[in-house]
Design brief:
The complex is a heterotrimer. By secondary structure, chain B is α/β, with parallel strands linked by helices. Chain B has 22 helices and 23 strands. In chain B, a hairpin with a 6-residue loop joins β12 and β13. The chains are: A alpha/beta, B alpha/beta, C alpha/beta.
Chain lengths: ~325, ~725, ~450
């Protein structure tokens, strides 16, 4: 018996979605095979990494995560610039954490102002992520859409409870939406259908199937991403043929394991390198499962993941 | 279709087109064909013309082809002795009317640049706002898309008095509708009436004074047309999609107040193209049958105090209730509260007094939305420790409502009432029991507030099937007895309906894919006689669930041709399951354990499996912890069967299904059952009786072994032999 | 797809003798069908039938065992390409590479680290499993000494790597009782190596320059009667290795290819010049089908995240992991610290305890056994009912630890609060937030 490479026959393709403003768009998606299965299909656009920027000075960050940004953490604009100028960020993800009613609860207008400033200061595509409070996000992200008209921001999380309001604003002011659902392929599909019914154009939708950190439910999002990809590529499920985003950094960096010192837990090894690898490995897993955009924090973790993408794409 | 209306509309359209033609000729002479004409600050040219015809009018010269189109569209005047026209010519006349009016208004912008203000608010010396520019369109249009403003009322003319004008405006505002105003009635406009009454108008208050002439109606229609292009991705000139978008999404209607002139008719006819019906306060002829609009086209002679409610109903607008107006906190956190004796102020039902709850559906005309009727003393008239009889009769109406949904809505009463802080609710139907705590009474809680709760929650949670809700709360014994009698009749009918429903009588079954999150290829097929294996969803629940959430986990499946009646296989079901299981399950039987059995999720109430030695079947429920004759406990079985796989010989079933006539028909049905846990057997005893009698073995239940007989096949076989269990002589299972 | 339980059952003796450890033949058949039992457990199946069932129900990727006793490592046994399709069976064995060129002190340190690197999480022991000893010095005695040292200092399974078949066989003979993996047979030496592995009954690695060669050599070894092979396609770049791993697994599953129906061995240690990058590649191999994953070093910061990844990927998607039922003390608790209760689904535990931790409000977290179900599911299944919760609270010993009597229950279970108050008359039941992420805010404002 001779050996023969068993190939999958793909019947679908992921949509190509251009992000960011005209003239400097970054395209994601376009795969006609599972991630990095380049021996049987194409991946015309490599997965992209968006670097996190917070709308106000973060509290409770580990030193590892804080250190690279210590000089800019009070100023989102400077922070974003540093990500681009020093670390070569391909995208920025502005986390509007202080809009959270359980946190600083800053107003929608204030959040929109900060976003506008960052949006004006960066040329790369800008992801704007709310605090995941359905009502507050509605208010904030609508305001953001309005003040940043035409910049084709990537706005999320858009959930079943607010997709109409944010979706409508995204249509009006021409932004892309992140359709966010809690680790369930059918809910993901359903929300995409609802967004379609609302007339959000198909080239303006990114899927967020939720992310858990390494050791904190990563396997659930890993599998839901694989299932979404499978449905999209081989099971003719058109409403799932969208690129996937994974907002992983904040999940990783809140775990206990990135904060316990080596003195407290010698077996866990070097604190700094451990945190970086916790983030990079989480990213590596979702990357293999099908993520197209990774929201990440630590420059060294990012550079490891970039290297890994390059290795898998080009074989060096 | 009323010939009178059509004739009038056509006459009006001819007048308006003639007027536009004259204006156009005059302007052409004065300014020449290269003169620019436009609505200010828009990229949509003259939006109705652009949207419908795809013609970007930017100069006077461009108007020519539009005028030609108008003349082509407008039919000849109607002669009195022909039994025509029908709707179509009137609609075309209406379309031409809007084109002509846009031309008239565009020329007005050219000739009198300051006729309209250019902003969101009226000015002290000029209240007419004119067309909305693109900034207003985008900002306000978002509200139309996300539903915060479901639509608009285009009001022509004026109300008989300022007070009535204010009342109508206020009611429309309460429904979150925009009010677009134009035209006068006997020299008076609604916009002026509102200003005289001290009401602030302008875009921010959603009371928009477009213009003094009926031709300003095109600003409203232009807004709708642009919304479709801007938010619906509709291309200019794609009139069919543009009109459909408006019909489906913009809940607008025309409301002429005062004498309806030919020109008004022409505008109303035009609006019907967009799916916008007309609701008039004067006795004009009506056009009731549905066709272009979702429901009626023209409804007339509506009293002013009913006109908004009627308009909302005719346009099919959903009422949204955001706030529950009661003096107590409300939410799921209070669901489990207990009211103990020491805290008790008042109670009803629960065997202490007569008590009943009933939800029934009624005709749209019989229900007044939001009405809460209280007969008998309320909590402010009783003393601590009192008990009273109680009845809550909820009457709902809705275009999508079916009497089949009544029990589903009624079942919600329990948790919806329980969500009220300080109230405890137990049971349902005529065994309901309510306790009200002292703290609630101190805060001013009344029984009639329960009506408000039910009204608000039915709208919030079941808006897709419920349009109107009224609630009657009685503590008067006679009234309670009446409701109780009514309830008994209704329950009987409902039970008969469920009994009478068979898999043969229904063509549509339902899927449930709720569990696919952990059982990726699992698809439950739910038929009238085979409830979901979790026991939580029967066929009616699925039907309602689909109406409420059309993109949700319960989808209708047309069963199609029956390919194997005994196994329970249908072509439509097979195809659906193949697709919904993502190509994992190629064939599924609704009634078989051995042959392509249904996949199982993990949440089944019971597992059925074979007992090879006894040639029978056993069923074990989740609560039975002990060993069973198949050699596996429930938990082991559950591990083997779940996860969305087909496992011949093993099946997840609901308790209800065990006593269904369709229970494992392929294997011989209930007759095959050789072992059940005692508690399950007792639970099913009542429902099993008639089936046993029908089988001709009235004492069949006694032949079924349980754990007291044995928990191995060896132990139960002699028992089965002794009893002469039918399974022993049936065809071999394998 | 293997045989269904019923199909297997039909071939069993139907004696319900119970000798296999389960009460009935039907139950045994089901266990066989789901890969939870071995055919050999039944003493009464005729050999012909055994072969028939074995053939049809054996996993397409054969299970191979390296090492013995407690430290025996099972690899392979896989039946699916994606974990959601059923589950992955045997997590990869992270392996420490030692070379006979290293100096002794270095080796001692590394071995020590290897030995004490053991973690426990959700009751599961996580550790690097194997030691690979590689002959690089060219000195057969150095290799022999090193193997001996390793044998003395650890019980872990071994991978013996030597291109010199003669030297390898000598050393292997001395420790064949440890069932080491012999690395490796290739297209030139497969006959010698094959016979040798057969003689010692040790698993044998097959190394080739590419997939085709691997296929051929493996096929020949199977023909020689070898049953326990481990495959090395020779790929030493992330991309090539990724591709090879996928093709090997797919061939085994989709084409029933016997030569590729074995676990694999991969070498991140030869694919990177630093441990960080090496860890990334090892992670890739963990997700996509690596068996023995050979690492140049075992360091906590690298191996711990890798073991977490492995644990996540190899968790059975249909069987939730559960944590032990008990009181968990988070932070420096005292007698007036808040008391919260939730179910024992491991993810629930991790997330809830993580949020409490980040709230910096020291708290007692009571974890009730809900058979690994999440809170709402557990409640629906009667595993989080007021009476059982109350029994647990009373028996847990929390009443001795705190002065107050306030218990925070998950927001989604507000519905049991009334009943619970009746069951626990001394306690005041507080409704916590519905989402764990709101716990920090909740705890900060909570007054005990």
């Amino acid at each position: 018996m001779a050996f023969e490479v068993p190939k999958v026959s793909y019947t679908g393709k992921i949509r190509e979605i251009p992000l960011g403003r005209e003239g400097s768009t970054v395209t994601v998606g376009g795969e006609s095979c599972y991630s990095f299965h380049l021996f049987e299909g194409e991946m015309p656009y490599t997965p992209k990494i968006a670097m996190e920027v917070y709308d106000s000075e973060p509290e409770d960050w580990s030193d590892t995560a804080l250190e690279p940004f210590a000089d800019v953490i009070k100023d989102p604009v400077a922070w974003a610039r540093k990500c681009i100028d020093t670390y070569g960020a391909e995208m920025i993800a502005l986390q509007l954490a202080s809009t959270d009613p359980n946190d600083k609860d800053i107003s929608a207008d204030e959040a929109a102002k900060i976003t506008k400033k960052v949006a004006d200061a960066v040329e790369v595509p800008l992801i704007v992520w709310g605090c995941a409070n359905v009502e507050k996000d509605t208010e904030v992200l609508k305001a953001v859409c309005e003040v940043c008209e035409g910049k084709n921001l990537i706005i999320g999380p858009v959930v079943e409870g607010n997709y109409r309001a944010i979706g409508a604003a995204a249509i009006a002011y021409k932004h892309t939406v992140v359709a966010s659902t809690p680790i369930d392929i059918n809910l993901a599909k359903q929300l995409n259908i609802l967004l379609g019914n609302l007339n959000v154009p198909d080239e303006k939708i990114i899927i967020d199937p939720s992310t858990g950190a390494l050791g904190y439910g990563l396997e659930y999002c890993y599998s839901v991403m694989e299932r979404i990809r499978m449905a999209a590529l081989v099971q003719e499920d058109e409403r799932l043929q969208f690129p996937i985003i994974s907002n992983l950094a904040k999940e990783v960096w809140k775990t206990k394991e990135v904060k316990v010192t080596e003195a407290e837990a010698p077996l866990l090894g070097d604190l700094g390198k451990r945190g970086i690898l916790m983030e990079a490995l989480t990213a590596q897993c979702v990357l293999l499962a099908g993520a197209n955009i990774l929201v990440m924090r630590h420059p060294e973790a990012i550079s490891l993941v970039k290297q890994s993408i390059k290795d898998l794409m080009t074989g060096k | 279709m009323s010939k009178i209306i059509c004739s009038a509309a056509i006459r009006g359209a001819r007048n308006i087109v003639g007027m536009a033609e004259a204006k156009y000729e005059e302007a052409l002479k004065k300014w020449g064909p290269d003169q620019k004409i436009e609505f200010p600050n828009t990229t949509y040219y003259l939006p109705i013309i652009y949207g419908m015809l795809g013609i970007p009018v930017s100069t006077l010269g461009d108007v020519k082809q539009v005028m030609d189109k108008c003349n082509e569209l407008v039919p000849a005047a109607v002669s009195d002795n022909v039994w025509l026209p029908y709707l179509a010519p009137a609609l075309e006349a209406g379309m031409a009317t809007f084109f002509a009016e846009e031309i008239i208004e565009a020329i007005r912008y050219l000739e009198e640049p300051d006729f309209y203000t250019k902003g969101e608010d009226p000015l002290p010396d000029n209240i007419w706002l004119g067309t909305a520019d693109d900034i207003i369109l985008r900002k306000r249009g978002v509200e139309f898309v996300d539903g915060t403003a479901p639509g608009f009322a285009a009001i022509l003319g004026a109300a008989p008095s300022n007070e009535i004008a204010v009342k109508i405006a206020l009611e429309l505002q309460e429904k979150n509708l925009y009010v677009f105003m134009c035209a006068d009635h006997e020299g008076k406009t609604m916009s002026e009436q509102l200003i005289e009454a001290g009401v602030q108008i302008g875009w921010p208050t959603r009371l928009v004074s477009f213009g003094p002439s009926y031709t300003a109606a095109v600003f409203a229609m232009g807004f709708a047309t642009r919304a479709a292009m801007s938010f619906g991705g509709v291309q200019p000139g794609d009139f069919a999609r543009n009109l459909r978008y408006n019909k489906d999404r913009i809940f607008a209607f025309a409301m002429p107040l005062g004498t309806v002139t030919d020109e008004w008719y022409a505008n109303a006819a035009g609006a019907i193209n967009w799916g916008f019906p007309t609701i008039a306060d004067t006795p004009i002829p009506e056009i009731l049958p549905t066709g272009v609009c979702t429901y009626e086209h023209v409804v007339s002679n509506v009293p002013h105090d009913k006109i908004v409610a009627r308009a909302v109903e005719v346009r099919g607008l959903k009422v949204s209730v955001t706030k529950i107006d009661i003096p107590m906190s409300y939410g799921p956190a209070f669901e489990g509260e207990r009211i103990r004796k020491d805290d008790l102020y008042f109670e009803c039902g629960g065997g202490r007094t007569l008590g009943v709850e009933l939800t029934v559906s009624k005709d749209m005309s019989e229900v007044e939305d939001g009405k809460v009727e209280m007969v008998g003393p309320d909590l402010d008239q009783v003393k601590e420790g009192d008990k009273l009889p109680f009845a809550m009769l909820i009457e709902v109406a809705g275009r999508q409502m079916q009497s089949d949904f009544e029990p589903i809505l009624e079942r919600q009463i329990h948790h919806l009432v329980n969500y009220v802080q300080g109230i405890m609710h137990i049971g349902q139907r005529s065994i309901m029991w309510i306790r009200v705590g002292k703290a609630a009474v101190e805060k001013g809680f009344l029984l009639k507030h329960l009506g408000k709760v039910m009204h608000a929650k039915y709208h919030q949670d079941f808006g897709n099937i419920v349009d109107k809700v009224q609630v009657k709360i009685y503590t008067d014994e006679e009234k309670v007895k009446e409701v109780l009698e009514q309830a008994k009749r209704v329950y009987k009918q409902r039970d008969a309906r469920v009994e009478g429903m068979t898999d043969e009588t229904e063509e549509t079954y339902y899927s449930c894919t709720l569990c696919q999150s952990f059982a990726p290829s699992h698809v439950c097929v739910i038929t009238p006689e085979r409830a979901g294996m979790c026991g939580a969803y029967n066929w009616l629940d699925c039907k309602a669930s689909f109406e409420i959430n059309p993109t949700g986990p319960n989808q209708p499946i047309i069963k199609g041709e029956c390919t194997a009646p005994v196994l329970g296989q249908w072509k439509g079901i097979t195809d659906f399951v193949y697709k919904a299981s993502r190509q994992k399950v190629e064939q599924v039987s609704a009634y078989s354990l051995m042959n392509s059995p249904m996949t199982a999720c993990g949440c089944f109430e019971c597992v059925a499996t074979i007992l090879p030695m006894c040639n029978g079947i056993m069923v074990v429920n989740r609560d039975f912890m002990g060993m069973t004759p198949c050699g596996m406990k429930f938990t082991t079985l559950a591990g083997m069967v779940g996860g969305g796989n087909q496992t011949p010989g093993f099946l997840g079933v609901s308790k209800y299904y065990i006593c269904s006539k369709k229970f494992l028909v392929a294997e011989g049905g209930l007759k095959r059952v050789a072992w059940l846990p005692k508690m399950l057997k007792e639970e099913l005893a009542e429902r099993m009786k008639p089936i046993c009698e029908e089988m001709g073995i009235p004492n069949f239940a006694d032949m079924i072994a349980d754990e007291t007989v044995g928990t191995t096949e060896e132990e139960i076989l002699p028992f089965l032999e002794e009893k002469g269990h039918p399974a022993l002589t049936m065809d071999p299972l394998m | 797809m293997g045989l269904s339980g019923i199909e297997i059952f039909k071939k069993l003796p139907k004696t319900n003798c119970g000798k296999c450890g389960v009460p009935t033949c039907l139950a045994f058949a089901m266990k066989l069908a789901t890969g939870q039992a071995e055919l050999d457990a039944c003493p009464d199946i005729p050999d012909a039938v055994k072969e028939e069932i074995g053939e049809a129900s054996a996993p397409p990727v054969k299970t191979v065992v390296i090492g013995t006793g407690d430290r025996a490592v099972k690899l392979g046994g896989e039946t699916v390409l994606f974990r959601h399709e059923k589950r992955f069976e045997n997590p990869p064995a992270f392996t420490l590479l030692l070379s006979d060129k290293m100096d002794e002190a270095e080796i001692t340190t590394r071995l020590k680290k290897f030995n004490y690197t053991v973690y426990e999480r959700v009751g599961v022991v996580l550790r690097p499993e194997l030691v690979a000893i590689k002959a690089e010095s060219g000195d057969a005695s150095r290799f022999g000494t090193l193997v001996e040292k390793v044998c003395n200092e650890t019980d872990a399974g071994l991978v013996l790597m030597n291109e010199d078949t003669e030297a390898l066989s000598q050393v292997a003979r001395s420790c064949s009782n440890r069932k080491p993996l012999l690395y490796a047979a290739n297209k030139n030496n497969f006959e010698t190596m094959g016979n040798f592995a057969k003689e010692l009954s040790c698993p044998l690695a097959v190394k080739a320059g590419n997939l085709e060669e691997l296929f051929e050599v493996s096929e020949k070894l199977i023909a020689m009667g070898l049953k326990d092979l481990v495959l090395d396609s020779g790929a030493r770049s992330a991309k090539q290795a990724f591709e090879d791993q996928i093709i090997i697994r797919r061939s085994a599953l989709l084409k029933k290819s016997k030569p590729f129906g074995f676990p694999t061995i991969v070498f991140p240690c030869e694919m990177a010049d630093n441990l960080m990058k090496e860890t990334m590649i090892a992670c890739q191999m963990t997700a996509k089908y690596g068996g023995v994953i050979v690492m140049s070093e075992i360091e906590g910061h690298s191996i711990f995240p890798l073991l977490l990844a492995s644990m996540n990927i190899f968790t059975d998607p249909q069987r939730p992991m559960a944590v032990e039922q008990k009181i968990y003390e988070i932070g420096a608790t005292n007698e007036s610290s808040p008391v919260l209760i939730t179910g024992n689904f491991s993810l629930t535990y991790f997330i809830v305890s993580g949020e409490i931790d980040s709230s910096r409000v020291p708290s007692y977290l009571l974890i009730k056994d809900t058979e690994g179900l999440s809170v709402l599911t557990a409640w629906a299944a009667g595993k989080f009912a007021a009476d059982t919760v109350a029994t647990f609270v009373k028996k847990s010993g929390i009443e001795e630890k705190v002065k107050h009597r306030k218990l925070v229950i998950p927001g989604y279970l507000a519905t049991i609060s009334g009943e619970l108050e009746e069951e626990l008359p001394d306690w005041e039941i507080l409704i916590g937030p519905r989402e764990a992420s709101h716990l920090p805010a909740y705890l900060k404002q909570l007054k005990i």
